Amino acid sequence: MSASYDVVVVGSGPVGTAVARELTDLDPSLQVLVVEAGAVVGEVPGGHVKNIADVAARDAALAALAGGPAALPGGTAARPGTVLVGSADMPNAAISTNVGGMGAHWTAACPRPADDEVPDCVDPAVLDAALTRAEELLAVTTHAFDRAPLTGAVQRVLGELFDRPGRRPVGAMPVAVSVGEDGALHWTGPAVVAGDLWDRPQVTLRTRTLVRRVLLDGDRATGVEVVALATGARDTVAARAVVVAADAFRTPQLLWASGIRPTALGRYLTEHPQVMAASVLDERYVAAGAPVDVDLPRSSAAAPGGGAIVPVSGVSWVPYAADRPFHGQVMQMDASPVPLDPGVTVRPGQVVGLGWFCRKELSPDNRVWFDDTATDEHGLPAIRIDYRLSDADRATIAQATAEIRGAAEALGRPLGEPFLMPAGSSLHYLGTTRMGTSDDGSSVCDPTGRVWGTANLHVGGNNVIPTATACNPTLTAVAFGVLTARALVAQMAPVAEEAHA
Predict the structure, then answer these.
(1) Which pLDDT belongs to residue 382?
(2) What angle, 0 to 180 degrees and rounded to 10, lies between the N-to-C axes of helices 474-500 and 14-26?
(3) CB–CB of 210/12 below 8 Å?
(4) Locate the Glucose-methanol-choline oxidoreductase C-terminal domain: which residues (predicted)?
(5) How many whole angstroms separate alpha carbon 191 and alpha carbon 197?
(6) What is the DSSP letter of 38?
(7) How far apart are CA 93 and CA 83, in angstroms?
(8) pLDDT at 9 (0 to 100)
(9) 253-257: long-range contacts (C-beta < 8 A, 24 or more apart)?
(10) What is residue 292's predicted lDDT score, i.e. its pLDDT?
(11) Which of 193, 224, 414, 415 has the most CB atoms around its CB within 10 Å?
(12) pLDDT score recorded for residue 50
């Protein structure tokens, strides 16, 4: 073994970064290695790509991700910075291979789960505290778009439609957005979660390095086997504990390749069926809204084409409730996403995009599985996906379609009919290493992320979320990562105390 660490973290996305940050915040003596198959995008490890103000530089950085030496199987370019996993059942399933993972590209929505979305395997007070810590790490706020014109009108209309006693009211979407000293808004990437993590002497970030196996001694994880993608050189790294937070496809793939195969591994794959619509806000609401002329910070106005956030683009939220199994993410746009009639012009924020994310029924038959007779280009078992909508799912989607149509009509003039995005479009993949309270074959790990039957091995990411949800999963996944880090620190504390005795 060429090196030894206290903890090896596989994956540098929001959860992997949060685990490493919490470990070394709580115990600065811990030596932590973070292994990432991808490269740094831009100048800051884990920085959000939309904070790269130069459009040409950003596009070039994203284009390199789809076909560089660190690109993993799939290979077909999807959204910028991602490649498709490849599945007829889930055609838009995508992965991101770069420092920061999907957190370098995400839309930063961070609603809390509620009602039956909340896992019952974690003490509510413990989960609430972990969610609060996750909001701190991600810099979550509901005030990023306070200056956006017309947002008040949008929320009033939606509130009249959906607010009910016992429901959370329509309001601003909690988003992971930071406000700079100049007032400019910046997307939170894992670089924000990291803070000074990568400058800490006890933390090492090893990029363009693929983990091929978790090493075992009996039922104990003892380290990882890695390969440098640029050279093909292999190495082994010893560790007192391993945390795998690769994503919902590659985390179970690595466990399977390592011979760690709980019954539920890869099963209960779910995402959020996504219904979309758009509307032009009625002029009577525009007249009653805030002034259209907004004093934009120079750094926000200087990034046309989707760079830094423009404050006219308010983001509103229709929260999930148990009696309506979806939640709404409502974005005001600077321009129409579809061609408008000749002579029709709109003000910034007048075009409203609506996305309803549906709760999907859980099923162990929806799964990612791994072919021992076929391997990918790195010698790992090939990824396969089985995924179907149930009758209950189709009923939920029909209900969401009717609701979003009504919302678009209430706001103003709908731009076409609502439509269902292809499976995988939400990028919210859950359940493949789900947590539970007992090793009964329906879960992969306990509420701290420790894999059943394997000491010193934890998993993290959206894939540990065990419930059927509609809300964006990143905040919840980071909260569970916080709990994993705290459990590891407590586990290692006696050993550390003995060493100093």
Answers:
(1) 92
(2) 30
(3) no
(4) 366-481
(5) 9
(6) S
(7) 8
(8) 98
(9) 253/368, 253/370, 253/380, 253/381, 253/383, 254/10, 254/211, 254/212, 254/213, 254/214, 254/380, 255/214, 255/433, 255/444, 255/451, 255/459, 256/370, 256/381, 257/212, 257/213, 257/370, 257/380, 257/381
(10) 42
(11) 193
(12) 85
Q: What is the DSSP letter of 335?
A: S
Tracing tokens 């200056």 back to the chain, one arrives at 147
Q: What is the CB neighbour count within 10 angstroms for residue 55?
A: 13
Please state whether beta strands 32-35 and 203-206 pair in parallel, antiparallel, or not at all (unpaired). Answer: parallel
What would the 3-class secondary structure string for 236-258 be? Answer: EEEEEEEEECCCCCHHHHHHHHC
Q: Residues with Cβ < 8 Å from 386, sequence gap 6 or more?
A: 89, 365, 366, 367, 369
Residues in the chain with pLDDT values less than 50? 68-74, 290-309, 500-501
Specify whether the CB–CB gap between 457 and 218 falls below 8 A: no
Given the residues 186, 428, 458, 500, the one annotated as active site: 428
Encoded tokens for 179: 């406000």
Q: Which residues pair with 414 in a beta bridge?
A: 279
Radius of gyration of the chain (CA): 22
Amino acid identity, residue 87?
Answer: S
Q: Which structure tokens are listed for 160?
A: 């009249």
At a CB cut-off of 8 Å and minimum separation 6, what does 380 contact? 212, 253, 254, 257
What does the pLDDT read at residue 360?
Answer: 97
Contacts of 219 (CB under 8 A, 6+ apart): 453, 454, 455
Tokens 């903890």 correspond to what residue? 7
What is the structure's pLDDT at 302? Answer: 31
DSSP letter (8 states) at residue 422: P
105 is annotated as an active-site residue = no
Supply 464's token pair. Answer: 């540990």
Q: What is the pLDDT of residues 60-91, one digit of tens each?
A: 777 766 554 444 444 556 677 788 887 899 99
pLDDT of residue 294: 40
